Amino acid sequence: MEKEEEILELCRENNKILRGMRRSQRLSSIFSLFYWLFIVGSMIAGYYFIQPLIEPLMNTYQQAMSGISDLGTNLNDLKNSIPSADSLNIPSGTIKTD
User: Fold this and answer.
1) Where are the alpha helices (DSSP H) in the chain?
2) Distance of CA 74 to the CA centre of its chain
3) C or N: which end of the chain has fewer Cβ atoms within 10 Å?
4) How far apart are CA 57 and CA 48, in angstroms?
5) Alpha-carbon distance 55 to 87, whole Å?
């Protein structure tokens, strides 16, 4: 009889420990969910509030890039519009390059 009572007491103690472990696991899962929701929510809110500040910078950047592209096109056009020495019928050796 004493062995049965000891086994019953050990089972109750084991059950109490297991329930505590399970409760701890549930709380950990819930806090982990809130943690990631907070991180993702902060990122979305940050973008929402910072977007009006970023848009003018992006527009300025795009205008600068198109200006640089136009400059490259204009330089190529200028290079192509300058006649070469062959097309001007200049005899070779008359142009000195030092």
Assistant:
1) 2-81
2) 35
3) C
4) 16
5) 50
83: left (phi over 0), alpha (psi -120 to 50) or beta: beta
Tell me which residue has tokens 């136009």.
Answer: 70
Q: How many Å is the maximal CA-CA distance in the chain?
A: 125
Q: Report if pTM > 0.90.
A: no
Structure tokens at 12: 């109750």
* Dist. CA 76–CA 68, nearest whole Å: 12
**2-58 pLDDT, tens digit each:** 899 999 999 999 999 999 999 999 999 999 999 999 999 999 999 888 888 888 999
> Among the ranges 24-38, 56-70, 80-94, which has the highest mean pLDDT value?
24-38
